[in-house]
Structures are given as structure tokens and as C-alpha cells.
Specification:
three-stranded antiparallel beta sheet, single chain, TIM Barrel, alpha/beta, nine-stranded mixed beta sheet, about 375 residues, binds iron/sulfur cluster
């Protein structure tokens, strides 16, 4: 039996039923999944595009009961720069993705079952209660679903987030944003943070990555309207999405949703099937920064090149320009915010700066293991 077949059996043994909000069962026992923008129509014994949600005897089964990655990360690594700066987030991931980006930086877990070289497998079998208990034991104020695409495992996240939010823990996704109105509604009661990749501003290029451009822009707009705290990330890939016109249109779209949404322009490094071009130079991120500010965005950040991008890792007051949060990479060396406000002019800074449950743990800027 091939390794891929064995992993499929293992994963198909660790499933839960799809939430009724995210599936429609047809009279012929096929199912329609609405956990992501693909809206797969899945016949009995078949799986959807993500390969992780499958039809067993007319029932949509979805991942549950395991993690493939679990760590305590600096919140800056997600990146969320306007959520309890300098604190830690318990981060979990599963396997699989609804996209197949050739430059995926997490392909070993995201491309499981699609690519034989993606050799990840579940690292721990566990319950939602154990994950939330780990967050409480480590005194972290945030839990994120990350590493692979969380939309395809939304039922598992929702179970964890329901328990966590009752403890005052902030919960969020680090996602490609290829969502649907149904899945956003489903998540909202227990999740308030949404980090969304806007990978480019071109419908053809989105098709090449495996998704629909409008599904992503709709998710950004809808998540903001529904009062999720949204931060947007664009991995700037030379020759793919780094033209002035495309970066300008990306920034203008985000600003049209809200000028308060932070835009993270991060440096690409050759990865997975993308060996060319070379890494993104600091000058390209500086150009993206200027275009973002010109579009009216109050907060634009350069990522993945710590110490090489001038002043663009820090948070400034949009009104009096005081430096409020000083960062280098994932490390926050100072945070002058008083509550949510600039200490110099009193302007309220958009974000989630007040802990609801346990206070922020201080991150050293380096991820650390999280045992269950
Ligand atoms: S999550 Fe998306 S890709 Fe996976 S089965 Fe559902 S609609 Fe298809």
C-alpha cells in the first residue's frame, strides 16, 4: 500500500460529522460542502478538492481529533500586530489545503494527500478540551488555527473556540480567506480574529493557485463588516504580484474596506515548487509600503526581513506619528499603548489591545513547544 493511501486511511479514521450549517445533502446521497469558496459537490466515497472532507454513505465527514502542529508562537508570527502586541498564541494546525500554491511556505502540511513528498502526519491525537487546557496551563490569551488552511477544518476549530472563548481567550484564523458567507457566520460566535492572505490582485493568478479571487475579497469585506478584527497579508513574490499597479490596486482595495486594516507585505523565499525568482529584496517591500500609505492605509508593515526594512516593522500613531510599538521580527521591545490609545495624543488605535481573560503572556519572540 502506498504511503499516501496509508495516510488517507489514518486521516479518514479521525473525523467528525460536518456541521449542518456547512453541508447540504442531496436526494442521491451526494453532498454540497460550503466550508470554502469551492462549494464542492461530493458524491458517495469521494472527497472534495481539499481531499480532507469526504462523503461516507451520504454523510460529509470532516477532520477532527488530531493536530499536526502545536506550538506557542509569538502573536507577531501569525502575523497579528494589532492584537495584544508581544503576547503569545497557542497555535494548532491540521493537514491539507484547498489551494496548491507553488510557493507555499507550509507545503509539507498543506499538500498532504496531494503530493507524495508532503510527509506530515498527525503529531498528536487529542480533544478540544486538551487544547484549551494547554492554553490555560501556559497562560496564553490567544488560540489560532494556522499552519494549514483552517477553513477546511472549521468544525474542529469551532469546537475548540467555543470552549476557549468561554474562558475569555481570543480565537482566530490564519487563512487564505477562500470562504463563504455560511462559514463566516458559523465561526463568528466564538472567533474574533481573522488574518487573511490576499495573494495577488488578479483573477487568473488566483485560478493558478487553486482559488477564486472574488471569494477572497468577499471574505475580507464580510469579515470586516461582521466585526472580526482583520489583518491582511500579501507575500510579495517578484514577477508574480510585485508590479506597482498590482500593489497599488491591492492596497486601494484594502483601504476601500477600511483604512484601519493593517497590511503586511512580507518577503518571499524560494520554496516548494518555486525555485525562481530569488527572495524579495527590501527595496520591493519599501515600495509596497509607500504604495500602501499612498492608498490611505494607516498601518503598513514589512515582514520576514527583520532589521532590514527600516522603520516599517513598528506601529505608529496615525495622528501624531509617535512610535507606539517597537518590533524586530517577532520580538516586541516596547509597547507604549495605554489601553487602546496613543499616550501622547490620545487617539484610539484600531485593534484588540485589551485582554478579556487571562493577561498577555510576554513572548521572547521565539516559538516554543506546547505539550498537551
Ligand atoms: S472545504 Fe472547500 S475544498 Fe474542501 S470539500 Fe469543502 S468546499 Fe470542497
Amino acid at each position: 500500500m502506498s504511503r499516501r493511501a496509508t495516510l488517507r486511511e489514518l486521516l479518514y479514521d479521525h473525523t467528525i460529522p460536518a456541521a449542518r450549517e456547512l453541508v447540504t445533502v442531496e436526494p442521491d446521497r451526494s453532498v454540497r460542502c460550503s466550508a470554502c469558496g469551492h462549494r464542492c459537490h461530493i458524491r458517495p466515497d469521494k472527497s472534495g478538492i481539499c481531499l480532507m472532507r469526504f462523503n461516507r454513505d451520504g454523510e460529509l465527514r470532516v477532520p477532527g481529533g488530531y493536530v499536526a502542529g502545536l506550538a506557542i508562537d509569538p502573536i507577531e508570527k501569525k502575523p497579528f500586530y494589532h492584537v495584544l502586541p508581544g503576547s503569545e498564541a497557542l497555535s494548532f494546525g491540521m493537514l491539507g489545503c484547498n489551494f496548491h500554491c507553488k510557493f507555499c511556505q507550509n507545503w509539507v502540511s498543506s499538500q498532504a494527500l496531494r503530493d507524495d513528498r508532503a510527509v506530515s502526519e498527525p503529531s498528536q491525537y487529542c480533544t478540544p478540551e486538551q487544547i484549551v487546557q494547554a492554553a490555560l496551563d501556559h497562560e496564553v490569551p490567544i488560540i489560532t488555527s494556522t499552519y494549514n488552511e483552517p477553513l477546511i477544518t472549521s468544525e474542529w476549530s469551532a469546537e475548540i473556540f467555543r470552549l476557549a472563548s468561554a474562558e475569555g481567550i481570543l480565537c482566530g484564523y490564519v487563512s487564505n480567506g477562500h470562504g463563504t458567507p455560511e462559514v463566516i457566520e458559523f465561526l463568528r460566535p466564538h472567533m474574533s480574529l481573522f488574518n487573511i492572505d490576499l495573494k495577488c490582485f488578479d483573477a487568473d493568478n488566483y485560478r493558478e493557485l487553486g482559488g477564486r479571487f472574488e471569494a477572497v475579497t468577499d471574505t475580507i469585506r464580510r469579515a470586516h463588516e461582521m466585526d472580526f478584527w482583520v489583518e491582511v497579508v500579501t507575500l510579495v513574490v517578484p514577477g508574480f504580484n510585485d508590479g506597482d499597479d498590482e500593489l497599488k490596486r491591492t492596497a486601494e482595495f484594502i483601504a476601500s474596506v477600511s483604512e484601519d486594516i493593517p497590511w503586511h507585505c512580507t518577503a518571499y523565499r524560494p520554496m516548494y515548487k518555486s525555485t525562481e525568482p530569488k527572495s524579495t529584496p527590501p527595496s520591493t517591500l519599501a515600495r509596497a509600503y509607500e504604495l500602501g500609505k499612498a492608498a490611505g492605509l494607516k498601518h503598513v508593515y514589512s515582514g520576514n526581513l527583520p532589521g532590514l526594512v527600516g522603520e516599517t516593522e513598528h506601529t505608529y500613531c496615525p495622528s501624531c506619528k509617535a512610535r507606539l510599538v517597537e518590533r524586530r521580527g517577532f520580538y516586541v521591545s516596547s509597547c507604549r499603548l495605554v489601553g487602546e490609545a496613543c499616550p501622547d495624543c490620545g487617539m484610539r488605535i484600531a485593534g484588540r489591545f485589551e485582554p478579556k481573560g487571562q493577561g498577555p503572556s510576554r513572548s521572547s519572540g521565539v516559538p516554543r513547544p506546547a505539550g498537551l
